[in-house]
Amino acid sequence: MPIQPEERSSFRSRKYRNVIIFWFLGLANNYGYVVMLSAAHDILADFNHEDVSSNKTYVRECNTMSTGIILLADIMPSILVKIASPFMPLCIYLRMAVTIGLAIVGFVLVAIRLKKWVIILGVVCTSLSSGLGESSLLSYIVFFKTKNVISTWSSGTGGAGIVGSVSYAALTTLGLEPVKTLLAMLIIPVIEAILFFICLDHPKINNNDNALESLQKSDTNVPVEADILGFRDKLRLIPRLLVTYMAPFGLVYLFEYFINQGLFELLYFPQSKLSHSEQYRWYSVLYQIGVFASRSSMNLININNIWFIALLQFLNVVFCLFEVFYGFVTYLPLLMLVIFWEGILGGASYVNTYRRINNEVAPEARQFSMAMNTFADAVMITCAGLIAYPVHNVICTFPSPYK
Questions:
Q1: In this structure, are residues 247 and 306 in contact, taking their beta carbons and an 8 Å threshold?
Q2: Over pLDDT 70: what percentage of the chain?
Q3: Which of 226, 227, 222, 95 has the alpha carbon at shortest distance from 146?
């Protein structure tokens, strides 16, 4: 039966609405994760109970614990979620309810700062929320005929970096206490709940064997198959996903998060008008601006060689290590430009990897492949945190090159 003009108009309206909503869902889902990393320097101050500049243990101005510790608490729990999620029923409404609930609990626990373990538990809750939300929504995306939702989701996750880091840095710089700042940010998971449960036009998911075929042929929001691959089929698919998508994608994240959580704090220019904490915060802002720019580029630039992006990110690691030890960059804006470039590469690997999966993987395997790929960055970010902690402490014993 041909689609009537009024039905086509209705579909277009729903399509544009979903595209916009997925941008905000991407932002909301990653917002808490970004804020916790942006606040890492301040969170660690509670562990030390002293200003970092008064710490006489190290030659440099260093926290007694690397910000990599916060990174580990912010990413390790999501590994469990991301490895289990692809093998579990989608149950998207239940998953999103848990995701939003964990985000709220995470903000509250970190804000109240009762004890050290309470702060870490709050970061863990945020990690679980972000991991579950990303894995679930990326799987859910394949059921939408409008493929631009992938582009807007990626752009929104990049936008979370800017909005999260800038909002935290700006509010704290203006004098608002970190505790009040974090509590004010509870509005984000509330907005996420409204968008997903009330505003989003959801596709119908059922067990129709011809659903995927219908989806390919129709421009309407037809019912689609929720889960097609069996457990053994999924296991057999992993080696191909690992070599083609997961390995280069994961390496990019290993290199960039080693820089962010192992070296950012050590890239300190005493001559600057910005304090040590302010420099760390604005490094995060510049990095996130780069991520946002490249994650929003899917309809402009397509990069298929993710291994090349991983190589370029490794060169950034080498550059930053030389800077930490020798301080050869005497102009702070030049270092900030490198940090912006680092974010560009990170965002490019994200948007192009998921674009390739959506375009290259068979329809019946897309849901699993999308969810499985999220495991790659979680593992490598964890590895980055594990490496960053000892490296940070070793570098702190060396004299600072900054005068």
A1: no
A2: 80
A3: 222
| Model pLDDT, residue 3 | 46
Residues 6+ apart with CB under 8 A from 258: 317, 384, 387, 388, 391
The C-alpha atoms of residue 39 and residue 71 are separated, in whole angstroms, by 11
Token pair recorded at residue 401: 């090159």
Amino acid at 245: Y
**Closest by CA position to 240, among listed 361, 123, 68:** 361
Q: What pLDDT score does 179 carry?
A: 78
Which pLDDT belongs to residue 337? 92
3-state SS track over 194-242: HHHHHHCCCCCEECCCCHHHHHHHCCCCCCEECCCCCHHHHHHHHHHHH
**Residue 115: band (very low, low, confident or very high) from pLDDT cuts 50, 70, 90:** confident
How far apart are the C-alpha atoms of 293 and 303, rounded to whole Å?
Answer: 14
Closest CA to 45 of 62, 33, 58, 60: 62
Cα(168)–Cα(78) distance, integer angstroms: 23
